[in-house]
Design brief:
The chain is of the alpha/beta class. It has two domains: 5-63 and 325-459, Lyase, Ornithine Decarboxylase, Chain A, domain 1, CATH 2.40.37.10; 84-317, Alanine racemase (TIM Barrel), CATH 3.20.20. The protein contains 13 helices and 23 strands. The chain has helices at residues 5-8, 48-55, 64-83, 101-109, 119-127, 144-153, 163-176, 214-223, 244-260, 288-305, 319-322, 360-364, 454-459; strands at residues 34-35, 41-43, 46-47, 59-63, 89-94, 113-116, 135-137, 157-160, 180-187, 190-193, 196-199, 209-210, 227-233, 268-270, 312-315, 326-341, 344-351, 371-372, 381-387, 396-404, 412-416, 437-441, 444-449. Strands 4, 16, 17, 18, 19, 20, 21, 22 and 23 form a nine-stranded mixed sheet that branches. An eight-stranded parallel β-barrel has the order 5-6-7-8-9-13-14-15, surrounded by six helices. It has a three-stranded antiparallel sheet with strand order 1-2-3. α3 runs parallel beside α10 (288-305) and α6 (144-153) crosses α7 (163-176). The longest helix is centred in the first third of the chain and has 20 residues, at 64-83. The structure holds pyridoxal-5'-phosphate.
Length: 473
């Protein structure tokens, strides 16, 4: 059965009209996702209708076993790819993808180090009990207070992003009487985006040092007492599918790395994160073990060509660890067929969240997918656009998807692959309270970040401070 002709004209070229719109695409959903005998979506052993009863909607759900499994898989992939060349690999979880105390505990428990990029992220990681020596600290504008906090906590490595920061950090290290290990962030001129990469001599962006400016910065760090340069760092982008961009970048960075060895050791090379995941059934990311081998081999070849020893490697995946573990649950509030000209009609399905819990479609035109979660349906699939409740026409959750044509108010809708950059990018736009995060494991659900109430929102309004409400000091 094909989709109605009017939908076909509006569907993006990549979106294939399915025969039925109940299936759960592999790789997009947590491995535990299935449907029970009544058709209800089950994640982590729990029917989502039960989660809706207990916690309401919208709801961010995260499958703990999925996070742990991906953390183990990624760590093993990079360790064994590095071991082929007799070196080690450290994997930092990029906390900006989704940081909470529990997530820090899961990933550190599985052997990952953690990367933070603000004082706030640092505080969460430390409060969760992360070993400071296994924290990395990034950012192009770390404040003196943030650097002080990192140095006092004993953060393992700080990634330097500017000449000004070298002086700042050297002064802080001197004050504390310590030697701080640092890396230098380098912009390789390679910028990878999903399938393609762009390689230029100078990339016009705020992060890092250009290849030509890096040697002077390295020299300055090496002169500074209190700083110990352990290596170069490079991150070429996010949601990258192939190895070509990483390989091109590695070649450029190793050339720089080799040229710097005359002035001292550089035991580490950090190649950042950016490993892509599947958001829809047509996304086809390179499996992480193949990526790891491709990148490690590329570094090895470049080192061999230059006759230098291969450094230990470090990586910083965020999305690849948590992305697939997250599912957002929404309730459908309204549906509205909209005539869009030339006889074409699009069905708008409005849910009770939106760009406040998932700004990625609005920010990056990111694609997501969706399924009816409270039931299956044999109704003919129709093209829909899932939208939120915000006062913004760009408030799109899923730009284009086929759902059963009888989708109706009261249905529970699930959007998969929302574990990364949804919670962390969320806002209170339109004073919509942020949902709770519920972690699932072994058939148990527990709140790991509580949801906001309207009182939470009012509590910050200083204009209301003269009329304290009950329960608020
Ligand atoms: C964002 C970022 C990462 C993580 O990116 P993912 O796409 O989530 O893997 C790693 N390193 C740096 C420096 C980043 O800015």
């Amino acid at each position: 059965m094909s989709a109605p002709p009017q939908s076909r004209t509006l569907a993006p070229a990549w979106l294939v009209a399915p025969h039925e719109a109940n299936g759960l695409a592999p790789l997009v959903w947590p491995s535990s996702a299935t449907r029970d005998e009544t058709g209800v979506l089950v994640v982590g052993g729990i029917p989502v209708t039960r989660l809706q009863e207990q916690f309401g909607t919208p709801l961010w759900v995260i499958d703990e076993d999925e996070v742990r499994a991906r953390a183990r898989e990624v760590l093993e992939a990079f360790r064994s790819a590095a071991a082929r060349h007799g070196v080690q690999a450290r994997v930092y979880y990029a906390g900006k993808a989704f940081l909470s105390a529990e997530v820090v505990r899961w990933v550190t428990d599985e052997g990952l180090a953690v990367d933070v990029c603000t004082g706030g992220e640092l505080a969460v990681a430390l409060a969760a009990g992360a070993d400071p020596a296994r924290l990395g600290f990034h950012g192009n504008n770390k404040s003196v207070a943030e650097l002080e906090a990192a140095v006092s906590a004993g953060v393992g490595s700080i990634v330097i992003d500017s000449l000004i920061e070298i002086e700042r950090l050297a002064a802080i290290a001197a004050r504390h009487g310590i030697t701080q290990q640092v890396l230098l962030r380098v912009n390789s001129g390679v910028h990878a985006e999903t399938h393609d990469f762009l390689a230029t001599a100078h990339e016009d962006q705020k992060f890092g040092f250009t290849l030509s400016d890096a040697p002077a910065a390295v020299a300055r760090i090496r002169e500074a007492s209190g700083l110990e340069l352990v290596g170069l760092h490079c991150h070429i982008g996010s949601q990258i599918f192939g190895t070509a961009g990483f390989e091109e970048s590695a070649a450029r960075i190793v050339e720089l790395h080799a040229s710097l060895l005359a002035g001292g050791d550089l035991p580490v090379l950090n190649l950042g994160g950016g490993f892509g995941i599947a958001y829809t059934s047509v996304d086809d990311p390179t499996p992480i073990d193949r990526l790891a081998v491709g990148i490690a081999d590329a570094v090895a070849v470049q080192c061999e060509v230059r006759g230098i020893p291969m450094p230990n490697l470090a990586f910083e995946p965020g999305r690849a660890i948590v992305g697939r573990a997250g599912v957002t649950l929404y309730e459908v509030g309204t549906t509205k067929p909209v005539e869009v000209g030339e006889g074409a009609q699009r069905l708008y399905v409005s849910v009770d969240g939106g760009m406040s819990d998932n700004p990625r479609p609005a920010l990056y035109a990111a694609d997501f997918s969706a399924r009816l979660a409270s039931r299956t349906s044999g109704a003919e699939p129709v093209l829909v656009r899932v939208v939120g409740k915000h006062c913004e026409s760009g408030d799109v959750v899923v730009d284009a998807e086929y759902l059963p044509g009888d989708v109706a108010p009261g249905d529970l809708l699930a959007v998969p692959a929302t574990g990364a950059y949804c919670f962390s990018l969320a806002s209170n736009y339109n004073y919509v309270p942020r949902p709770p995060v519920v972690a699932l494991r072994g058939g148990e659900a527990r709140v790991i970040v509580r949801g906001e109430s309207i009182d939470d929102l009012l509590a910050r309004d200083a204009g209301l401070a003269t009329t304290p409400r009950e329960g608020i000091a």
